[in-house]
Amino acid sequence: MAILQVHQAKALKAMPEGGTHPGLMQELRTATDFALRATKITARSLGKAMSTLVVQERHLWLNLAEMRDMNKARFLDAPISQHNYVKSNSLDRCYVKLISLAEQAFVTLTTNDSYARGAMVLGKSLRNHKTSKKLVVLIGPHVSNQSRAVLHKIFDEVRVVDVLNSGDTATLAMMKRPDLGVTFTKLHCWTLTHYSKCVFMDADTLVVSNIDELFDREELSATPDPGWPDCFNSGVFVFRPSNETYSKLLKYCTEHGSFDGGDQGVLNGFFSDWATADINKHLPFIYNMSSIAIYTYLPALKQYGANAKVVHFLGQMKPWSYTYNLTQRRLRGDVQASSQHGFLLQWWALYSAEVLPALIREYGDQRFNSGCEEEAVESEERVQPLVSSAERRHLWEQGQADYMGIDSFDNIQKKLDVFLK
Ligand code: UDP
Ligand code: GLC
Ligand code: MN
Asked: Which of 63, 294, 333, 398 is a good FRET partner for 271, with 20 to 30 A between their CA atoms?
């Protein structure tokens, strides 16, 4: 275009004053014709781009009008790249892609029904502190249907994964934690590629204040491990799901194994520059305050403990390893002196008020380990039902409750008294 304009200007300049020059006139006509054609093509493509933008904008606002406020805020916050618009043929697909790219999630893991109780409490604690992020739980195939049903009520996504095990019994015996080989299963979290960024949290963590600001950090951000502060603790970490990273991690496992037999050894080996490369990837300790450290540095707990945002019940004894008295709101045994006693009670208060009722509903008359002292008394008094709990539930739903027998008001009240005191 610029060349044509120069050519036009030169032809005009060379034109004799007051007269015409047929050769130059032809030259000028040809150059102008080319310039007009080029302008037409530019105008047409500009028009097309403009109309596409108008349609996209309209589509976007129509969808936004139907969206819940929480999702709207999340979506409008998301980085919108031209790449995503241009590549997609269908506006719908483009919209869905943008939405899911914007999505961020807290992720936890449980391979059994015990840790599942921890995951439930963690999920509730995140919800109670009004997280705007999605909640995902990875579960092993052995988690019971009842636990799955309760997890579905709390989490946005319950994803079954294969259990990966380091099988490194010798190293795990050194830590006196033979159970931790299965923590390799945690690595599956990198396959959650429909989220742009995630925060992994162990099932034995409890959130005591909103921590959505963790999503401002980059992979791999974590707190120092209280046992060896040049390693990070893998109970809470920020990561970016990626199938490529997942494959590299698995390769790392087969080639190098794990120095502690669990995921923390692998992750520290893989993200080996964590200790020195970038201080922004060192999360403050209040995002993963391990109970073990509380025990070893009591004055620091007194000074900073009130600022804790996440408590991590690291070590062999988990909150669900204790027995709780619902009536007295006390833990059985000699735990009062322990520095984490207050946090244990906080965990149990949340469990008994918001998780246990849902478990009771799911298990019906089937026995399960609720962890409560009253359960033992109650189960001794329990009359064996003549029909199975599933059948009974069905009858109840059909309006055929056994009002004179097992579903009598007395029995229902007794059950409520036991659990909801
Ligand atoms: N985990 C699990 N099943 C197990 C052991 C561990 O699902 O049998 C998961 C769970 O999310 C747990 C995490 O792996 O929080 C790490 O294990 P744990 O918290 O027991 O390790 P610690 O923090 O005590 O070293
Ligand atoms: C640690 C971490 C835990 C991890 C385990 C095994 O103590 O707290 O998250 O799974 O070691 O590596
Ligand atoms: Mn843990």
From this structure: 294
Q: Which residues line ligand 1 (CB under 6 A)?
A: 108-112, 115, 179-180, 182-183, 186, 202-204, 235, 314-315
State the pTM of this model.
0.71
What is the number of the ligand closest to the CA of 267?
Answer: 2
List all residues 6 or more positions away from 419 whose beta carbon is below 8 Å from its beta carbon. 326, 352, 356, 357, 360, 372, 374
pLDDT tens per residue, range 98-156: 555 569 999 999 999 999 999 999 999 999 999 999 999 999 999 999 999 999 999 99
Helix (H) or strand (E) run with residue 245 in it: helix 243-256
For ligand 2, is residue 263 a contact (CB within 6 Å)? yes
- Choosing from 199, 200, 202, 340 the residue with most ligand 1 atoms within 8 A of its CB, the one to mutate for a pocket test is 202
Kindly tell me the sign of the dihedral angle through the C-alpha atoms of 62, 100, 203, 338: negative
- Parallel, antiparallel, or unpaired: how do β-strands 310-312 and 289-290 relate? parallel
- Tens of pLDDT, residues 212-247: 999 999 999 999 999 999 999 999 999 999 999 999
Among candidate residues 235, 6, 197, 212, the one with its CA nearest the CA of residue 109 = 235
Nearest ligand (C-alpha, residue 188): 1
Pairing of strands 310-312, 205-207: antiparallel
Element (H, E) at 232: strand 232-239
Instruction: Output the six-digit token pair for 239.
Output: 């990561």
The CA distances from residue 209 to 125, 135, 286, 346, in Å, are 8, 16, 10, 13
Q: Give dist(CA 205, CA 290) in Å, integer.
A: 9
On whether the CB atoms of residues 286 and 318 are closer than 8 A, the answer is no
User: For residue 154, what are its two tokens?
Assistant: 């709390």
Report how far residue 50's alpha carbon sits from residue 52's, in angstroms, rounded to the nearest whole number. 5
